[in-house]
Write a structure and sequence with these properties.
Strand content: under 5%
Number of strands: 0
Order of helices and strands: HHHHHH
Distance between the termini: 116 Å
Length: about 190
Amino acid sequence: MSSKMKNVFGSGFAISWVLILVLAGTALLARQYLFVDSSPTLQEVLAKEDLRPSTDFSLVIAAVLAFALAALSIAKTYEIFRRSRPVAAVLIPEEAEDIPAGVVGNKAGELREEEEGLAIENAELRSRLKRIEASLREAEQVEQMLRKSNISLSKECERLKSENEARALKRMALKTRKKAARPRKRKTRK
């Protein structure tokens, strides 16, 4: 949207329009405040039979500016229509009537061949993109599976560690019981 706005304001057309509208508004405001005297009273009108209006150039200026706006709009419309001529008219200048018809046909044929080649290349690229997307989805599924497997393995590892610690504690408890349960032999003197 901003590039379109730059094109509109960059061409000078919109700037000219705004400038002319501002000038027309200024002329009409000037007419209201500068050129028009206060309205004559009834006595002044009756006293003067020949009442001449003061010179008012603001209406003339507004008319000239309106004419300028119309001319500018017509010129821009012509420019737009001239730009949107058919492609054949742009490719083949009007003065080039002496060009043989075969050359024009060859150019059109070359363009068709190039278009067909680009269509084939486009189809190949689309199929390649589909294959890449499929392999990406596959890799994402494998990654999810590996993550779940990793989580379950870490849980199993924690369970085994706790079982190992419990067994080690049992062994230590059994050893201490055996030591405590053994009777001590006293040596007797002979």
